[in-house]
Every structure is written in structure tokens, then in C-alpha cells.
Records
---
Amino acid sequence: MPTTSSLNMSRRHALGTLVRLGATLAVLPLLEACSSNDYPTLTPNPATSQTGVASGATVAPTTVPNASGGQGSSANIPTPRNQTVIFEQSKTDIFDSFNPYIPNGEQASYGITQVCRECMFYANFEQGKVIPWLATKYEYNPDYSQLTLSLNQQAKWSDGQPYTAADVLFTFSMLREHTNFVGAAQVATFVDSVTAPDPATVVIKLKQPNPRFHYYFIAGITQDVIKVAPKHVWEQQDANTFHNNPPVYTGPYVLDRVIPQQFMFVWKKNPNYWNKASLDPAPQYLIWRQLLPADASAQEFMRGNTDIPSLQFPNQEAIKSNGYQNLLQLQFQDPCPRGMWMNQDSPTGLFASVEGRQAMSYLLNRDTVAQSIWQPPSVAAKYPWAGWAANDKWRNDDIQKKYDLVYDPQKAAQLLDGIGATKQGDTRQLNGTPLSINLITPVPVGDPEYQIAQSLAVNAKQVGIDIQVRSLPGSPFNDAYYTGAYDMTSHWLCGSALDPNQLYSQFEDKLYKPIGQRVASGIYNPTRTRIPELNDIATKLDAVNPDDAHNKPLFDQGLEAFLKNLPALPVIQTVYPFLFNTTYWTGWPTQDNRYNISANWWAQFLFVVGNLKPTGQQ
């Protein structure tokens, strides 16, 4: 009978469309800060430890002597510098809300996900294991129609109230009532009933066998999907409008204050944290603040005023070449290869056939993309998952070589000719219409995913296909992607987190919706795919335990169905360079000691914070 112990490990968590916060480390001119450090400083307010900022309230900036606590620091923060870890993050305009269930309800990458709201389980992809936390184990019945969660009886909310099955039941009830909430689609699709025989046990009866339902409680890619709310805080609130400010969760840090004028979130260590025996962080304060322009960010880092900057690889290399010594650089392999998605209901008609999709793959020069566009250089993606050792169990090199993803424009032209997409002069036509493809990307113009799209457009032009690349950051991309208002995309191929069928199952026929209807976030079929071979094997895989080695032949069939039919295109493995400052803190992950996920916007970064030790720098 499968239990938590079997989680060592299938892999990755793609449960739907978890927003890829930090997916690009683009440096944007978000603040008018310069090398003179002329942005305002704030008066420390030691009285605010759990009070935070009331909904809609502001904190007026006041220029005062620096409160950093170290003579050499000019960090302009309201806490002692030698007790504080300072993060840079991408732009935010959400400062007074911590509601994870509604659109724009919180800014997840500014500390709430990493150190305040904990998960039942954490997937440590670097070590190939899952860490039980708010739950001690999970267990299915023999046919996977019932899941039992055993909660950690020591867990407490930050206000001292116990974390119990009543909170879990309340959350499921809330998600049933509010069908538009994050996590609600999963509950509506899979859950029949939820009961609690005692305060530490939750029994979830499923509508059909599902050996993966526990994935929704695991921090996989960035965070978990079903987030448990404290019943005693939420039950008297309107969950649609509740700001949850200050947030009450179980993590080792509580909100100290939010300073909108400095784009800053300040978190303070909770002295009454329930799990000190396992994790007792040394930093007293954590500050997330909006990134500066590249030059200012680099100068702040070299002054020791930032511990984790958001800097692109060339900027990081410039810091190193400048002789700055107090740093560690780590290359992190992201779980999502860069990828392209093709709308099979595209008005062009090109992607309705496997030959059209294969032709587009042959027009991708993955080696050039990996070596020339992506920095630091990467490698071509041969499988639709990250090239981590823990993913080797899903490989089948014979199948991969049979459908090798290579650059071959001549083969692409042959395939196009074969489906009647013939050249009329310099332009190909299909069904009497010139082939013109609308390719969208969620990143700004000039970012790598945009350049990847442009590279494909250049190659496609040579065989007579016109590709128009459009940047649609934020909600415009999401709206187009989920409603099918596109022909192709260039972004990331997320799916295989804990096992590959998390990707394959996204293309099942039952999830199909015609163009104009919005697919369900977190479950979806954004490519309007209807491929019988892929649908059949994904449906079979839905019902089997991915941790059972006897099921590997079925997963091989899934891999073959994916690579043969290509509903989406793996492009390159994604490598991100991270920089850590060692002036005030040691214990960062290194190339030789990747003890947990090093991406600071992931929930797993909790364990990096817990591993830090002060250097003694004053």
C-alpha cells in the first residue's frame, strides 16, 4: 500500500499552471534608484511584529539615520543588517493582501510562500526526496479511491492555535463553495467527500481512483496547489474579499510590516514557531524588495546591501570580473525546459496534423538556442522534463533516438509538402491560405523566450512560413493562452514534476474546450489537443502508481506517444545563474552541495533560510 515513504521520488510538480514566478530574471528599470542610494529610509517600528499593515494602510517614508546595525552597511532598511537577509524580486503592486485563492490576491514571491505559509510536504528535487512537514504521511487504499492524510500533531498556527483536520475540512468546504478559487477545480474534479475521524487524520474519498491526489499537497514547482486556511481566522470572513492581513500561517516568520513606498516586505522570526526542533533559522529578519536597475543592483550587491540579487548572467559576470570576492555563484537547473506549445485548433490548420507539428520541431535549431541565446549556455532538451538525475528513471534512450529532436529544415519542407502546405513563390499555402502564424510569449521583447521565438521565425521564413512574434506579458498572455487565441507560444514546458503523466494528462480529450472557452487552470488542455494515442495512454497512466517500477513500460508508451505526436515542443534545458552574498551569511547552496532548491521564490527556499549562519560581520 503506497505511503509517504514511497515518495523518494518520481518527480516534479506541474499541477496545472502554477505561475512561473521569476521565470526570467529580466532586469527592468522599476525604481528610480541610482548609485548614490538616494531612496528613502524608514524608521524602525519594533512594535510591529504580528500586526503588519492594515488593509489599505500606508507607511510614510521618513529619512532617518540608517538602522542597519553595521557600520559598513548602507542598506537603508528598518532592521539590523547583520540580522537580516535581503532579497531582490520582480515587480509587484500588491502590498496589502495575502489571499492565495483569488486573482491578484497576494504577491507569492515576496516571502509569504517561502517562510510564512508552510506545506504538508516539500519536494526536494535536488536530493530526490520528499520532506513531510505539516503532515507526517499519506496513505491510499488498495484501489487508490481513498487518500488518508496524517497531520503533524505538533503543528500550530502563528497565533498559537493548533493546526488540525478541522482546518483542512474547512478549506475543502470553502473550495467547493467558491469554484473560481485556486485549488477549487481539483477539488471539484476529483473529490467526493472529506471526513476527519480525529483531529490529526483527514480521509479524502475520491470520485475515481487517483494515485496522485496527494501531489496537490506537495510543494513542487514553487508551491503547493491546495493551501490550507486556518478555520478560526477565515470562517467569519468573506473569502472573496478577505485580505488576510496580517497573514496567520504556520511558518517560522510572521509579517513585521509592508512598506509600499520602498516596495518592501519585512518578515520577522516567530519566537514561538512550532517546529524549532527541525528548523530554527538564524536570521531574525527577512526583507524582500523590488529589484533595482541593473547597475544599481550590482552596486548594492558589492556594498553588501543585498544578499540575493535579481541579476542576469552578464551582470553577475561583471561583478566577478570587478574583483568582488564575497559571493557564491550557482547554476540552477529549472524543472521546466523552455518549450513551445501549438494550438491544434489554430485557424492555420497546420497543427491539426502530426506532420505540421513535427515540421515545426525540425525548424528549431536547439543547439544554437542553447549556446547562443540562453545565458549561461545550456543544452538541447531531448526529453520533456528537466535533466535531473532523479528524472533518469523515466528515460528510454531507444524511444528518444527514434524520435530525436534535431534541426533539419529539409525534412520540415518535405513534411509540409506532404500535407499540401506547398510553396507559391516564397510563401507556403495550406488549404488555399498563406501560412501566417501568430506566436505569443509572456516575456518582454528581447528576453530569451522572445529570442527563441524569433530564431524559429527566421528558420520558418526560409521554408515559406511567416511567423509574427508578439510579447504579451501578464494577464493578456494568460487570457490568450487559456482561451486558445493563439497559434503557437514560446515560454516553458512545465509538466513533469513528480512523474511524466502530469504532463501527458494535460492533453486528455476530456479537458478539451473549443477556442473561445477558457480551459481550467491547473488541469487544462491549452493546446486543444485531441490525439487518440496520447489520450489513451495518459488515461491508463492516470490510474497507476508512478512509484511502482512494474508500471515503467506504460510510462515508456506515454513517452513514445508524446515524442511521436508532439503536442508541445521541448527546446532547451533551462539553467538559471544565482548569486549569493557571503558578507553577512554563510550556508548557501553551492555547486558541490545542492542540499535543496536554490530558487528564492520557491516554497522550498524555507530550508535554505533555515541553513544560513551569520558570519559575524558587524
Note: Residues 31-117+251-334+580-618 form a domain with the D-Maltodextrin-Binding Protein; domain 2 fold (CATH 3.40.190.10).
---
Amino acid sequence: MRSAWSRVITAVLGLGSLLAAPVAPAGSSAVISPGPPVDAPGYHVRYLVPPNPLQQTDGMALDGQGGVWVTQALSNRVVHLDLATSAVTRLADETDAEPLRVPDDIALGPDGNLYVTAMLDRAVVRMAKDGTGRKVVGSNLGDGTSLTNGIAFNQQGRLFATDLSFADPTHPGGLWEVDPAGVKPPVPILRNLPTPEGFGFGPDGLAYVPEMFAGRIDVIDVDARTVRPLVDGFGYLVALKVDGGGRLVTMETDTGKLWRVDRTTGQRTFVAQGPPGLDNLVVAADGTIYTTNFAQGNVWRVDEARQVMVPLLPESSLTLPFSLSEAPDGALVVGDFSAVTRLGGGGPTPVNRLSRLLVDGGASSTPTKQLQLLTPGAVQIGSAVYYSDFLPPDGRIFRRDLATGRRELVAKGFGFPWMVREGPPGHLLVSDQALGAVFDVDVATGGVTPVVQGLRSPSGLAFDAASGVLYVSDTGGGRVLGVNLSMPAPAPFLVATGLAGPEGVALDRDGRVLVVEGDTGRLFRVDSGGHRRAVASGLPTRTVGIGLPLLNYSSDVLVRRDGAIVVSGDADGSLIELTRSTDGG
């Protein structure tokens, strides 16, 4: 089923490189506070999950004045965080005239400028501390398949960057020297490095580079262009910095463990335990360590005395919630793009992240572990969760047993599998944005059959088991279609048209279609004649893409068994619940 599209994505995919940049909603008086204004006549509106103040975080650089710059690759964003007040200021965003496409790592140069690796552009960009004056100083890093990643200056003010491939652990990466002035082209220092991540220079002038999938730290002499291993036996190492005492500080993303390593002997000492999904770190002048997390966002302060990581901002359960479904016990199952998350119902919401980007549940990591990347769709059937996962060049559907944690492949060969819904008994329904189709998947055999084709970036799905009718939002076509799967030769029929980016679809308890119009932040109810009536407006559903073809980043809508409506806000990581008020509506 795969097309040439998947090969394009393979060439550009890096950690988070397919995602959208959420647009901040305009501030005004709100029905629910704090947050965007939501107008839903006849409904009580509340947050089930509040907005995430820092959705998904990556690279870090200290400003030397009590703050830190943070990149948000999934949002094409760079922000400044005041470590004392927690104030967040945006320096770069997708809506800028000169957007940074998937900014991953960041460094403060001796000239007072910021230097950022733009993964999707395979480039290094220089900009002022306020985000202005951007200039590409290095381009075409890597071989066309790998992407720019880590960045660091040495003591002489020379700038270096790494490239790697997250999609293929066997694909070689490398280390480059980049001219900060942007006059000379980048110079390859070494190739054939196994996934070199964020790195640092020691007081000896040597580069200490964590090799992610190899689980080791290499030592590189950038002048002699030699490399030697220092220590191995780690999990997935994603970043390394050198503290004031010349010791290496590194961390494993799959286990959440932070280590201090002697750079001469390789002896390691456990420092702290954090949540899996760690991405980068900095070491402040007073020795305090701060970390980021690409799977759940936030910035974390390391409490070495207690060997834990403490979030600086209020914790939130979600980052980019793209799909919603209700489990048999009333819990919500969320395809959060960088994770599959189960939120328990009633009272305080317990969070169970069943799987995370580049993190596989189970024992300590090994090179033979099956990687997981992007997971936009998930549904629980019985005691198992089925979810979509895109690991180039193959889109797959997995099943995870909630009792044992065991993960099994159900089906593969998709382009970009998006929404996953329960279909007829023993079957799943899967929308595929890349292939423009909806597929029926036999969970017993893995057989895949197209049921609707010729769509443009389909996202939302709803299935009415009583009638056998499947509803799908043809997002790029501005319409919602239906198809009766119980018919001998199912043919699509029009449900609604003229919509601005229709995304999530659901059926209310009266059998009427609900559709999220993502581009406008509105929720509509559609009657049998195709006429629609607004249910809510001001929802945080608008996201801006990063320029890859056929991809649309979607919010979803769910009607729970008690009749409550839940909308996922992919613009801010929230879940918003609408329940009927007693005074009509």
C-alpha cells in the first residue's frame, strides 16, 4: 500500500519532524479559565485535561541570567523560560515570516547569538536572542536521509553539529564543523557514527558524543578526526553536557535515568530518575541540572538529594491529542502522537502512558528493541489497545495487552495510518492520510482491505455498529462522507460539504453526526439533510502544518456513553468536555 510519499517522509523524518506548530488562541474572556474562549450555548464547558504550558520540549541553552532557551520541535517553536518566575516568551513560531522547521537543539554562541539545528531543513540557523535576524549558516548537513540534531561550540568558538537518522538505527550519522558566519560550507569531520546525539566538549578540547542506539559515549578529536569509545552499556542516550568539574552528564530516554560519567575512566554514577522521553539537558553555573522531555513536555529540575526530577511548570497529561476513544471501563484512550495515553475516568485523572515516542515498555533497552515513532490513533477493545504507528518507511498497527504489556504487530504496509476505530466484530477501521483511504483490518489475520479511496488527508472516523455506516472526514476535500459497510458493494455518499478542515467525527446519542472544523475551532452537528448547526466555537483546534504534503494534524471529538461531548485541543494539549445544561440547548 505504500506510495512514493512514504519514501519522501523517510528522507526527512527526524524526531518530531512531521508535526504541526500549534497556534496560540487569541486571548479574551473565556467560558473556561484559564484558556481559550469557548462558546457553547446550552452546555457546561470544562477542562478534563488543562492546556500543556510547554507542549513537548527538546534542546536547551542557558542564557547566563537565570533563564533557558528551549526548542519545541513538534511546534516549530523556540521559547525562553525564566527559571525563577516560569514566565515563557516565544522567540520563534511556525507563523513567523521565517519559520524554523523542526528546531531541535540550540546553543548560545560567543558572539551572543543563538544557533539552532533546523532538522527538517538539514540546516543550522543563527538568530538574535529575541528571535530576529535569522540567517542559515549551514545547510545540507547529512546525506539526504539523516537530519541535523546536536549542536555545540568548543572553547575556541568553533561550531559543530551532528546528523543522524531516527528512522533507521543502522543508518550512519556524522559530525560537522559549521562556519558561524555562514561564509564557508559545512565540513564533515567524521562519518559512520551510529546516531550521534546532542554532545559537549570537555576541558581537554575533545568532543564527547552519545551514540543513541549504540548506547555508548564516543570521544572525538575534531582536529585529528579520530574517534574512540569511552563507555557503553547504556540505553538510548539522547544528550550529553559537561559540568563545571569536567564530568560528563548524560541520560537515557527509554529509562528516564540521568548519569554522571568520569570522562577519563568511563565510570558512571546514577544521579536521578525522571520520566521516560527525556530529550536534552543543561548544567547551570551552580551545578543544577535541568532536563526536557519530548514525550510530555515541560522543563524538569534535577533534585540530586532525592534522585528525582521535579517539573517547573504544572504537569499536563497530553501534548498533541489527535484521537479520542472511550474504553469499556470509561477511561479515555488518547492517540497523543508522541505517546498512547490512557486517562482513567472520574475524579482526579490518573495517567497511564502505554507507549511513547522512541520508548518501548518493558525491560532495559537493547539494540534489538522495536522502535515506536508517531502514534496518532488508538482505541481499546476489550483488554487490548490497538494503535497506529509510523516508522519509515512502514506504517503499522499494533496491539498492546493491558494486563501483560505485551505488544504484537497486527498489520503493516500503510502509508501514514492515522485514526483507528473499532469496526465490525473482529475488525478495525484505519484512515491513512498518505494513501487517502480508509482500510478495514482483520485483527486475526492482519488482512487489509480498502473501503474508501480517493480522499485528501482523511483524519476523523466514526462507525455506527447498528447501521453498519462508516463516517470519515475528508479533511483536504472539506467534506464528510459515509459508506454503508453492510452493503454488498459499499459506495460513499455525501454527509456534509463546504467545511473548513473537517477533522474529528462522532455520532451523538440521537445518531446525528458531530464534526470538528479544525481550521475555525468550531464543532458542528449535522442533520440527515446535510444541514449543520454550530454546537461550540472558540475550541483550541487550529494547528499549522510544516509544509509536508498530504499531512493534516487533527483534533477529535468523542461522545461518551453518558452523552458528554469531549473535544481534543491539539493546539494546546487540552481535553474539553461539553455537558448539557439544565436550561436548554
Note: Confidence is low (pLDDT under 50) at residues 1-36, 361-368.
---
Amino acid sequence: METRSYFHQASQEPLLYATIPDFLEQRATEIPDSEAYVFRHPPLEDVPGPERSSICFRELEERSAHLAAAFLELGFEPGDRVAAMGPFCKEWVIMDYALLKIKVAAIRVSRELTTQSSLKAILEKHTCRSLILHPGHKESFAQSLEQGSPGFLKKDPKVCPDNVRFVVSMTGSTSLDLTCIHQMMASEVRGDTLERVRKIQASICPDDLATIYMSSGSTGAPKAIPCSHFSLVNNTFHTVAPALGGLQTGVSRYFIDRLPHWIATFPFTTVVCGISMVQVDPRYTCNAFGKYNDFLFRVMREENITCAMMMPYLMYDIVGGIEKSGMTLPDQLTHVMTGGERLPIDIVRSTLKYVPNIAMIYGTSEVGLAMVAEIDPRKRDEDILEGYVCRHFEFKVVNEQGETVERGTHGELLIRGPSAFSGYLDDPQRTSEAFAAGRWFRTSDYAAMSQAGKVKILARKSDVISYLTSKIFPQQYEKLLVEHENVAKAVVVGVPDERMYEIPCACVVTANGEDIPEEELHDYFRRLLLDTDSISLAPKYFFFVDAFPEVNGKINRRKIRQLAAQKFGSSRGNMGVQDTI
């Protein structure tokens, strides 16, 4: 029996050697009139367009082929890179598949997180020949870009990188006179150009570059992560589909409220599995704090949702809508997938009352979805998020010397698998640092493997607090804090200290908006924690905040560490300072 922390999830299900456009053609033939994507928004006066729009597989195939030809006639060439910024909408989806057909890679850039200077840096570093953007409501985003750098969208060489030849708007005829996807889709294209699209698509190899994601930047500067057709297809088929309970072609309907620059949106699940994806903009979920609950519940019922991606904030809203307002979910909603952030156990148990199957997923932008914890309410809280390795993946846990540790011992988690990336785009130094010998990807996460080969993620390596002779895993303290009746959310970080390395600091969002007396929290920890080597490991600092800063839908621990260091770093021993973020 294997005693070292290594596990390979072998599978009799073979890997698929196909491209995303191959699957789109197949679905357009098999289920042409089945909806591929559905877009919903609440009835608001300032939101233009219908409350519901959709595109079926046949229309998606035909319109993406037409737009691909229009891109070629505009001047795009196979092998080009473009930066794309925008929400999930019909224009984005058609653009996405059009670029895939002609071997043009889209760098999916977050519109919310990108500054003028960082956008220019991306365009320059990755030699993008085009910027494709959604102008925003009433052209607000396009106007803000142009006002911040006059001439930028008009390709003025004084402010726009020389390599950018085209700036394309997804919708409308903007006041900035940009080339528009709407117009391109309505224009005539030559027959020989359409034939060229078919030839380029036929030449695509599954190992070719498909699209490029940007890491969230929650642990440092964002990195560009290239994904091949092979990696996206197999991660969808072998990991996403099983996590959602097994998807039925032409039947399953998948709800999601994330944006297309986030890899865990799994946008190509529609064509790979032949299902419908129902999308709601996060303006009406994570940024709305339950304001649009009536709308969300109505969408789930009207669209006959069978499975969903729900981040913790959405679980809170769903449970609140049911228990406080008597709202109901559709009976056919049987599987929920969640991830991207540590999951509060109490909200998991509450959601399980209304959805029978919840899967906590683990992965990285670099390897995709790699582990799934199927939540079993009978397990103890400390074991409930222990997960199994997904098909075809290998996991191992190593110490600081790179040696594989015995099972039950914590260390850094390394991953190898078919959907792992080959390296960061245009960044050989970071690529070299990302891999250990044997092409094992370093996750920078602390984990422990059980005797049965299941894995529990303990903390980000950068989140672990080195306090004197001890290693403190923040998740343990955060769990204790949220069990306090007056604590709604908690994040524990380390404040740098010359003498003690780092001092634990608890950042707290209170349940009633009022600060908790610090002595009460000190007493609370004294009752619950045992001292190690006569040293109290309880948090020394408490930082009361109204809300935690986020990046890409995740709590931005890096920013919280910076704020805590600014507050307490120069005043060791000051235990009475309180403030808000």
C-alpha cells in the first residue's frame, strides 16, 4: 500500500483529441435548434434590450463562421493575439467562437480590474494586434478609456501601442466611430473568405492555442495563461461534467453568474457537452446583496435550471430568499458546484437542505479543475471539504526540500495532468519558477493527503502565518471566528514583525455592524485554543471592517495583509486599534 502522498486518478474513460470548433459543428448538426446560451437581466429602465435573449447551436455556428470571415477581411490573421474585454452577451459568444475558428487567440481581460496603464502593458507585452471591447452601458467604459488617454481608442501612436492595428466594439455604432461587430455580422463577406475560414478551422490541431486567461492577481501581478483546445475540452469533459452530476446533451441547463474572463466559468461546456448555459450578469448577484432575489429565483424556475455554479455569496442569497421570503427553487435543480474561495461550512449545510448535491471544486487557472469534494453532511466540519483527485490527474505533497511526504503530513501540493498549461505567455522566468522537476506544477497551496488518497487544502502557502516556532493555518481560526454569534465573516492574516516573524491579525465583518469588544474576542480564543510551548497562538490584533476587498470575485487577502500591515506593522503591541476598510 502506498504510504507516500502521491495519487494518480487513473480512468478507463479515454482523453478526447478534438477541438472546440469540432464540437460546435457536431452540436449544430445533432441539436441545431437547442439553445446554447441564454442571457437574462431584470426589467430595468436603464438596461437596453430584451429581458431574455438566446442563441441556438445552429445560429452560433453560422454567425461565428460569418464573423470569422469578416475578421479575416478586416485584416486578422491566424496566430494573431487580441485583447478582449466585456460581459457575457451574444456578441461576446459569437466573437469567441469566430476567433477560435481562425486560430486567433483572445486574451480575456477583466474590464473591472484593468487600469489604463495595465491594459497598455498587456497589449504591448503580448503583441496584441487588436483590442475588442464592449463599450459599456451608454458607452461609459469606452468613453472612460478615451478620456483617460485621449486618442487611445483611435490608435494614436502617442498613447496606443504601435502593434495595435484594430479597435473593435462589440455593440452599437459608438460615438468614437469604432469598427463594430454588429456591422461586421450584417455585412456581406466573400465566398472565398468563407472557404478560407473552413480551411483554417480544418487545420486546427487539438494541441494548438485556443484562448488565454489572465490570473486574478489575488496573489500577485496577473499572469497570462495560454490554454489549448485539448486542455479545455478534457477539463470540461472529465472534471466539470462529473462535478455537475453528469450532463445530458440537449437536456441539462447550467446557471452561472460569472464573467467570461474567469476560467471557472467553463464557457465551452455548452458545445463540449451539448447543454444550455443560462447567464446572469454579476451586477444582479454578487454586487446586489440579494436585491434581485425575486428575479434570480424566477430565472431559475423559468429556465428549468438543473445545475449551477454558486459562489458563497449566491448561496447566502439563495438560502436567505428561501428562509426569509418563502421563495422556491426548481425541483430539477439537483447539483451545485462552488469554489474559488474558502467555503463557510454553515452555508454549505444550509444550502444542502434545498439542493441535494453540492460539489466544492479546487483548481487553478494553470491546471483547470483538478479536485472535487462531494459534500457529505454526515462528515465532521474538518473533513467535509476533503476531496478526490479528478480523472487523469496526479497529485503529490512535498516538503520544502521537494521530497514527497508521508500521507497525513502537510506540505505543498503539486499537480500534473492533461489540462495543465505549458507555461506563462511571454514569461520564461515565471514559467521556470512554476514547475518542479518532471513538469509538476507548484500550486503554492498547503495540503495533506489521507490514507485513502483524498486531499484537504489547508491554506495558500503565502497565507500561512509563521509565528515564532509555529505555522498557523488561517482557515482554522476563521472557522472559529465565524462560529461566534456576532461575527459574519473573518479573514486571518499575518502582520510582519522583525522579532516574531508574523503576528496573527483577525479581520472581522460583524453580524450587526457594531464592533465587538476586543477583550471579548481574546477571552473567546483563550477558551478554545490550547497554548503551544506556553505561547498563545490566538490573534493578537483585531481589525473591524465593513466589507472585505475583492478581486475577481475572491477575497483579496493580499490587499487585506497590506492594510493590516499599514495599521499594525509599526505599532507592535498596540492591541486596541480598530478601523474600517
Note: The mean pLDDT is 87.
---
Amino acid sequence: MDIHGLCALILICAAGALLGPELPTVERYALTDAELFAAVDRDAPGMAAVLDAWGAGDAASARRLLATHFRTRTEPKWFIDHLEPHGTEAGPDERAEKALRHEFFSHGVGHTFGENISWLENPTYAPEHEFDKEWSMAFLRMPWWNDLAAGYRKTGDERYAREFVHQFLDFRAKHPICVERCRGLSSHPLKYAVPEWRTLEVGSRLSGSWMNAFHSFLQSEAFTDDAVCEMLKAFIEMSRYLLKYPSGAGEFTNNWLVFETNALYSAGVLLPEFVEAAQWRSEATDRLVAEIRRQVYPDGSQWELAPGYGAGVLRSFRRAYQIGALNNSPLPADFTNAFESMYTYLLYSSINGSMPAFNDSGHGSIAGLMADAHADYPQREDFAWAASGGNQGREPETTHVAFEYAGQYVMRSDWGPEARFMIVDAGPYGVGHQHEDNLSFELWAYGDYLVTDPGTYRYNYDSPWRQFMVSSLSHNTLAVDHLGQQRRGNTAKYASDAPLAHVWHSGDEVVYLRAVYDDGYGPGAALKVTHTRSFIFVRDRYWVIIDRATPTDDTEHLYEVLFMLAAGNAQADGDTITSTHEDGPALVIAAAPVSGQTVEIVRGQIEPVRRGWRRGGDDVEPNPTAVIAQTTAGTATFATVLYPQQPGAEPAGVGVRIVEQTPARITLAVTAPGDGETLIEEDLTQGAVTIRH
């Protein structure tokens, strides 16, 4: 064998290795021409001539007439106008050129396919990567078809059209739709028997890349009549599939069903030439209305309680409403009632234009959402302010907000660039994308995060890193005997059916929140400890946190209060921790002295348990974590002061001590710059906090 043959063999073997284990064989099908034309509605405009040609045995003319109808029709309308002139700008288009070269980037990993795309190839099967099934799922949504489509509309370059048609027909030939629902397959790394036909990806393609490509390439000679008819067949197949197999038909539905139903509704509106379109539209309308009522709490949060996913659900609801309004097929009048509360939640839970990173969410931007909010509700001055970056409208007046269904509480000094801000997560587990993070929080001050949520991790559920990142040990809450909270499987804790009964008071000098976690720790939630946590925001300047851990047994336990520090420069000195951003703000954490208590900084720890890590890019990186620990029988009490400092400020002299404590009351003496000593008394019976100098 010569060197060229050897290289070819190596490439073939490498490609095979990137396909992973063999998937099971399932029954598949593809619509025939006869089935396509049987689905056509003779009463729809222009369709009688199509069916007459088909009935006369002239299949070529029938396909030509059907394709010509779609090329020339002026209604219904999509977000892309297929009749607009193409090729108004010079090429080439960089993103489309990458798609031509089969260069794709997903979830932090790039990959170049060969001449013909192997649709289930996943570069993270390679040993230098941790496997990521979501690489395949994101790839199978064909997002680069949007790039080819945009490049074609801009430049009119027929190479982009030919590439799209080739890819579409290639995928259709290799991966026909499955007859039955795509089932889970826990034994396979991709976790699905037919991953390319997961309902989420079907919905994403039908209302996204495939529909965009269809409308973009209708002017192209490369998008032949036969190819147009093949794509119409695919739209029918996908719509029938989504109609028959809705996601999450049990007690808890999630974002999947919303995305899929938006697609089904879009197909029902956009394809009135087919008899079933009315059924698609009707069923999708019922599902959309049911889901916006089910999934959106009165406080505007979405019940997965991962703000990034809630934002995606809002966009999907809004897109369905837009496509209906665009085509005089509006959804029910009350459908949009929840939009305003969802926008309000996203604005008032944000800091510096970013959403909190609770559950499987990151610090996503709300800028685009606020532009939508302003467009939808131009009378809202706070939306105008947020959408314009503060240049229009009026700054929000409300600073302290309780989202009582989400169990999320905001304490904010103001809306300016030096704001002190905390958001606490004291709510249900959420119906999806959950983390064991009850009573955790994020803290921002003077332009940066000081205590942060570590973020999420790739959805590789077998990975110890995934397990760590969703556990209490990676959050700003309490661990007991190195064990975290355990709500998974306890479905009674997934959602709220009424406002939560936490103690919440907002006053001029003090904002006070007290909440309780008592659902157990460790495997099976067998370790029963009640964690009561109080947050006291003093004069809009600093926070006092009081933690009480009370077991049901008389055994000695190790209790650890954890703070994920956002600044890399952190050190412990006695009962005080200082964390400083380079050229940025600092945080002083002072712990009340308790006999036997330890205060330390942990970074990048693996044993005896993982601690001191956060998401870094598409992997993990060491992160300083403050650990304040007590080993005791009975109730353990921690009192800490979190004092933010402006950039360049001298280290603050901050201290706290427990003056008096009973089961129902605690008095703390807090020392802070400019205040001398302040006595802070919490009365658990009265649910009240008082301050005196």
C-alpha cells in the first residue's frame, strides 16, 4: 500500500471511531409522490391544477406546478420573504464559505467533515475530549443552513444553493424519519436510539433552519422542482411526527414541548395547501395555550427555573404569536398576557444586563429580550430604559423584589453602575435542568460578581464533573458530612402551586429574607437536617447571613457553609476571607468566631470530595471557594458578614460576633467601616429584624 492509500485508510478509521457504538435498527419511511399529492387540499388556492395533473398521470407537471406555486405565492408569509431580490451584495460570505468546506463548530469543539457529511459523526468521541452528546444534537439542528441561506440571499452565489440541496437530499436519503417515536437508549453515549429524530431537533429544524432554507432558496435553479417537493414531503413527515409524539405528556412538560409546538403551529399556518394543516394549527394552538398557562408562574418565571431556558420559552411563544399575527391567524387574545410578566421577571432578576446563572442557565444577556419587551410594550418606561441601555425611558424604581413562586428574591441598592446586588434561590427544584442549589445566591457589587454560581456543565450525565456541577458542593449553600441536598426524584418539590411561605420584609434600613430547606441530604435524602438561612441586607451596603443547621439525630456532623468566590485572588486570615478582582471590586467575608470552627479557601480539590471548581469555557477550572466548617452535635449556627468594597479601597475592618443566642432569637454585633458597632437582632418567632447602634 502506498502512502496515499495508507492516509486514506487512516482517515476512514478515524471517521469510523467518531461514529461511536452502533445504534439499533428502527423502522423508517419516506413519503412517496403519491402520498404527497394525496395530502394536497384541492380546495386550497392553486391546488386544483396540481391535482388535475397528478390525476392525469403527469407526475412531472404536478411536481412543477406545486413547486411553482410555492415559488410565486405571496401568502402565507414567513420571516424571510422569498420574493425579495437576492444577490444585492458582493460575496463571498465567510460563514457560508465555512459551510461549503464542511467546517463546523459546536459546543466548543470544531470539526471538518469529508466530502460527504457523516451525519452522526461526533468529534468528542476522540480520546482527547470528554464525550458530549449535545455536540451531535446541536449539529443535527443544521444551524449552518441558516448561514448558507443568508449567504445566498446576500450574494446570490449558486454554490451555496447547490450545497444546501446536496446536503438536504443526502440527509434525507441516509436518515429517513422513524415510524415510531425516538426512544431513549441509556446504554448508548447519545442516549437516544434515533438521535437525528429527537423531537426537539425536529421542532428546531421545522421552525428554524429548514424553513429558513426553504424560503431562501426558492429562487435558485439548484433548488429544483423535485427538491422542493422532497422538502414539502419532509415538512409533512415532521408535522405528523410532532402531532403524534408530543414531548413530556406526563405531569411535567418543559421547554421541548414549547419549541416543538411552535414548529407544529408554524407548519399549520405556512402550509395551508395540505389537508392536515388545519389540524396541525388547531392542535398546536391548544398546546401553546395550555403550556403558557402551565409553565409560566404568575411572577413571570418559567417552571424549569433556569432563566436561560425560560427566556428561550418566551422567545418561542412570541415567535408563534408573530407568525400567527403575520398571517391573520392570531392565537387567542389572552395568549400574550404572560409575556409582560416574563419580561418583567427577566429585567428585575438581572444585573448589568445579565440573568442569574441558576440551574442549567448561564449569565445570558437580556438585551435582545428587552428590545422585544420594548417593542411589545412601548408604554413601559422601564423596558424602554433597559432596551436603550439607559438612554431612553425611565430607570426602574423598584429595587427589592420577591418572585414568590420561583422562590427568588432580589436585594438591590440601586440600578446604577456601582449597585450592590444579591439574588437568592430559595424556590422549588424546578421541573427540568435542576441543580441542588436551594438557599444559594449570587452577589454583584461595584461592577462585577463577587460570589457566583459556578454555571452548568455539558449534559454528560455519567461525568463526575456533571454530577459535581449540579450538586450542592458547587453552590453557595450548606453541605453536611460532605453531602449535598437531594430533591431529585421527589416530584412534590419540583414546582409551586402557590406563593412560597418564606419570611420577606423590605424596609428602609433592612431587607430581610428567611427560608428553610428540610428535604434531606445525601443518597435517598436519608440524612435529615433542616437548614434555615437568613439574609439581612443592611442599609443597602452589606449583607449578614445567618445559617442554622439542625439534625433530627443526636449524632455529631460536619457542617460546611460554602461560598464560590468570583475573584481569583482570595485568602483566609483567621475568621476573615478577602477576595479581590484585579483592578476591580473586593469582598470581605467575616465569620463570627465559634469554638472549633475553621475558615479556609479551597481550590481545585478532588479528594475527599470535589470542591473549588467552576465552569471555564467548555471545561472546568479551579476556583477559590470559601469553606467555613463546624463539627458538632445538635444545632450548628454560622453568622457571616459579606461586605463589598469599591475598586482600590483599603481592606475594610469588618467583624461579627454572636452576642446572645436562644433557639428563638440571636443578637449579633457587626463592625463595619463608618458604622462603629451595630447590633442586629433576629427574632424567629416574630419573623423580624431590628438594628440599633
Note: The first helix runs from residue 3 to 17.
